[in-house]
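My current task is to audit a protein record that another person submitted. My question to you is simply how this chain folds and whether the C-alpha cells agree. This is what I was given:
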Amino acid sequence: IIISELFLPEAMKTFKEARIGGIAGGTKFIIQGILFKLATDEYDLYGGEDGAAKVAGHDLKGLMAYFQCSLEPDCNGLNVPLGCIIDYRGFRLLAIAILPIGKTTLKYGSDDGGCTVHNDDEGLFELMKKAAIKLNLKPHEVSETGVPLYGPGD
C-alpha cells in the first residue's frame, strides 16, 4: 500500500509518514510493529534513487551478517530483528521488526543521533566484539562521546 499510494496527496494515504528523526534511510512508516523505510534520496545523500536502494540492500546484508554471527556458539545471545527487502513497482522498502527497546532499556548504541551513546552491558559488549572479529570490524568511537562500539552507533 505504501508504494501504491506513493503519489497520492498525504491526506488520502492509508499510512502516514512516521517522523522518528534522521534523514538517512528514506521516508519511514511504522505499521503494526514494523518499521518500513522507503528507499528514497530526498536529501541527495546517495547520488539518486538507485543509490538509496543499494544502501537499503546493504542495511539488510549487515543485518544478515550479524544474524550469521548469532548462530555461532560463542555469540549465543546476540539477537537481531527480523528484516526483509520488498521490491515493488520499481521502488524498494526495507522492513524491520521493531524491538521492545526504549530509552530505559537501550544498552548498546544510540537512539538520539549519537548525542548519548550506550555501552552499558559488558556481556553485550563482548558479544558485539566477538561478532566484530568474525566480520573483520574494528572498534570505533561514536560521535564525540568517546564511547567505543564494535557495531553501528544508531
